[in-house]
Task: inverse folding
């Protein structure tokens, strides 16, 4: 179980302030308007950002996909290759393993045709697919994805979700992701957390969330969607 | 926090603006309201480095009411400055370069003086070298021959200055040393160092390399007996006061009707495009040969370096 | 001016051994010092650009101040350190091309570091979240940053090289302008001015410009190649 008292304050502005509990091996979707603290939560969980209260301690492998990834001036294939962990680089068996995974993702995410293209010249959706492939290349215990399909069209999103589901089946990580799509939350997650102004307004199993919103804020939020 | 930042920036900009104005205003104040008389002198770094000119300046300005502006460079450049019309009078010490300057019509004869070249003072070059040298020489040329024989390090000015020209003439002609600074005869490459720098730098190099060097006594003493300490601990005077080592200083007033040269195109400038203040030049020359100046020049160096650095000579006045 | 240009071409075609020696010495010195300065400077510049640390602003100010080190000052400083009576006198580097290279490295490294930090900070800031998220090691990060900043770093190198080839104050003092040994184009120009050979001085200056032009043309081809790919 992962417990955290997450707090982040910038001057007088409190961006995030609440206690969270995550069950290992389960999938959580975090939803809320822009500025509700979703990205901040994921940043803290990925140890990119320092928690204002006690430091977040987690001993497993953490995989993190930020909201916007930098598009390197490398080919798509090489852009993904840089994620191969160093310790394993020298062992040829492990090398082949990663090569295999890279080729598999290139295929499954429809990146094969542009595998040699420079990553900096891709469209938003393609760049995001590359970033996703990069993040999913290794096995992680805790997987954090910040709006992983925000730039993708419907077809690309479907493909990405399939790849993600395969990954979940294979490695059974604790997955926490943020999204603007309530439908996506329903499709993938076990639980959904609704944030507003840095506080948890409501949290419930995915199915109940949409069918039985309990709080006024959530009802309003769902109506606007 | 934001307002404090804004205020700080404004204060900084204000300070910068005020200092700019102050700078401009102060410089404006230095512009005299009445005409100031100036004499432009072009001289060599050796002359300037000896400190003589700095010493004489306040006396000159008080006695004559003229201000002087001195530009110093290597001998060749100093003479060129005059050819470009940038000086009213030159003060150099290289007969070899003075004579062509006069022959080309750049010199003007001043009333009361025998020739355009007014050689009014001299000193001696000295040969300096490593402290361990205890040889005795019959003449300076003998010393030079020994140095060549032993292949001791010798640092040459290598810049066609008066000092360099003098030095070149003291070697045995067989060695092939000329004042052509682009040629270095094979046989001497190991020990003859053509530095192409000023006197101070060459002395420092000689000290560094435990080598020999021909220098004017003034520069040598100013480094040796420097108030901050002996800058040339490895050098001392090996040979001096040989007639071959005489270093004569000459003043030449610039001819206002000379064919001055355009510094950019190298071509002759049209007549009348350059103004030379001959009155200023004559004032300078007359003062430098006056009794007051003579006394000052003889005195210069006696307290600081234990002896005068320059000796006055006669023979330049018209009969 | 015309005469100087003529003379420059004359000299370049003449195969004069002294000119060849001077040009060789200059290039040897300038390429070596700018290369070393590039390596050290880029390393320092990227380190500063990619990390936030206590006192970073102070370091950046110091770095930028060192960019304005006067060459003559560095010349005198190194002279005192490496002359016979100085702490490093036993290395016998005084009046050598090696010491001239050292002087230039001292002068140019801060410039490279400062320029790298300035031009790479925006790029590094964009890269940082992704690189950190991937937990890349230092070497990998360095390699990626250099790869992203190839265009900028070429400009930085050209500036470093330009400074090296045109510097005269420090190399004059620590090198001594010794004929056939430590005479480089800039000190030769200064000497020719002092001997009154202005035309020759100008001609040498023009040759130096040609060298700089050639280098910049090669670098521009590289850079435009990169630019096109963008």
Result:
């Amino acid at each position: 179980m992962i417990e955290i008292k997450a707090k982040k304050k910038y001057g007088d502005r409190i961006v995030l302030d609440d206690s969270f509990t995550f069950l290992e091996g389960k999938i959580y979707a975090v939803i809320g308007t822009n500025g509700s603290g979703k990205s901040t939560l994921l940043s803290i969980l990925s140890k990119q950002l320092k928690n204002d209260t006690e430091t977040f301690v987690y001993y497993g492998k953490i995989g993190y996909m930020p909201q916007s990834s930098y598009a390197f001036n490398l080919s798509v294939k090489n852009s993904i290759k840089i994620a191969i962990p160093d310790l394993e680089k020298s062992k040829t068996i492990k090398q082949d393993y990663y090569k295999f995974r890279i080729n598999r993702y290139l295929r499954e995410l429809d990146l094969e045709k542009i595998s040699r293209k420079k990553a900096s010249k891709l469209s938003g959706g393609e760049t995001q697919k590359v970033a996703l492939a990069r993040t999913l290349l290794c096995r992680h215990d805790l997987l954090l994805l910040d709006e992983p399909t925000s730039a993708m069209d419907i077809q690309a999103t479907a493909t990405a979700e399939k790849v993600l589901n395969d990954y979940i089946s294979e490695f059974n990580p604790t997955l926490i992701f943020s999204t603007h799509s309530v439908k996506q939350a329903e499709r993938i997650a076990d639980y959904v957390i609704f944030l507003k102004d840095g506080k948890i307004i409501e949290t419930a199993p995915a199915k109940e969330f949409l069918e039985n919103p309990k709080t006024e804020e959530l009802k309003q939020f769902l109506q606007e969607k | 926090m934001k307002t404090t930042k804004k205020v700080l920036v404004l204060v900084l900009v204000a300070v910068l603006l005020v200092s700019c104005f102050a700078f401009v205003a102060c410089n404006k104040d230095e512009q005299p309201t009445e005409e100031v008389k100036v004499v432009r002198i072009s001289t060599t770094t050796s002359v300037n480095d000896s400190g003589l000119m700095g010493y004489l300046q306040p006396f000159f300005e008080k006695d004559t009411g003229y201000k002087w502006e001195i530009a110093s460079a290597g001998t060749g450049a100093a003479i060129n400055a005059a050819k470009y019309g940038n000086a009213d009078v030159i003060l150099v010490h290289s007969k070899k370069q003075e004579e062509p300057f006069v022959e080309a019509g750049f010199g003007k004869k001043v009333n009361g003086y025998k020739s355009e070249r007014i050689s009014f003072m001299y000193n001696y070059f000295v040969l300096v070298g490593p402290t361990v040298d205890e040889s005795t020489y019959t003449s300076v040329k003998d010393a030079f021959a020994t140095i060549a024989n032993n292949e001791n390090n010798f640092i040459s000015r290598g810049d066609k200055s008066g000092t360099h020209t003098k030095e070149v003439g003291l070697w045995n002609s067989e060695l092939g040393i000329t004042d052509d600074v682009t040629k270095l005869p094979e046989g001497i490459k190991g020990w003859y160092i053509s530095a192409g720098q000023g006197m101070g730098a060459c002395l420092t190099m000689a000290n560094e390399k435990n080598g020999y060097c021909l220098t004017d006594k003034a520069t040598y003493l100013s480094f040796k007996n420097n108030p901050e300490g002996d800058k040339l601990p490895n050098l001392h005077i090996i040979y001096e006061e040989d007639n071959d080592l005489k270093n004569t200083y000459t003043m030449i007033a610039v001819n206002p009707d000379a064919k001055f040269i355009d510094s950019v195109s190298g071509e002759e400038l049209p007549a009348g495009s350059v103004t030379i203040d001959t009155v200023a030049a004559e004032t300078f020359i007359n003062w430098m040969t006056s009794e007051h100046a003579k006394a000052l020049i003889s005195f210069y160096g006696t307290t600081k370096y234990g002896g005068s650095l320059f000796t006055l000579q006669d023979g330049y006045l018209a009969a | 001016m015309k005469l100087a240009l003529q003379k420059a071409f004359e000299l370049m075609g003449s195969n004069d051994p002294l000119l060849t020696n001077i040009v060789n010495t200059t290039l040897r010195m300038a390429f070596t010092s700018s290369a070393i300065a590039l390596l050290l400077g880029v390393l320092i510049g990227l380190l500063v650009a990619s990390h936030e640390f206590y006192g970073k602003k102070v370091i950046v100010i110091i770095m930028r101040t060192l960019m304005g080190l006067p060459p003559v000052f560095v010349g005198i400083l190194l002279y005192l350190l490496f002359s016979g009576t100085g702490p490093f006198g036993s290395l016998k580097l005084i009046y050598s091309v090696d010491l001239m290279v050292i002087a230039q490295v001292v002068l140019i490294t801060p410039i490279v570091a400062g320029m790298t930090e300035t031009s790479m900070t925006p790029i590094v800031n964009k890269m940082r979240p992704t690189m950190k998220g991937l937990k890349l090691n230092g070497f990998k990060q360095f390699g990626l940053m250099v790869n992203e900043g190839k265009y900028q770093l070429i400009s930085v190198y050209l500036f470093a090289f330009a400074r090296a080839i045109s510097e005269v104050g420090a190399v004059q003092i620590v090198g001594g302008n010794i004929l056939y040994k430590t005479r480089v184009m800039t000190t030769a120009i200064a000497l020719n001015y002092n001997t009154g050979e202005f035309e020759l001085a100008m001609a040498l200056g023009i040759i130096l410009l040609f060298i700089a032009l050639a280098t910049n043309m090669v670098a521009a081809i590289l850079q435009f190649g990169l630019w096109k790919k963008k």
In short: The mean pLDDT of chain A is 89.
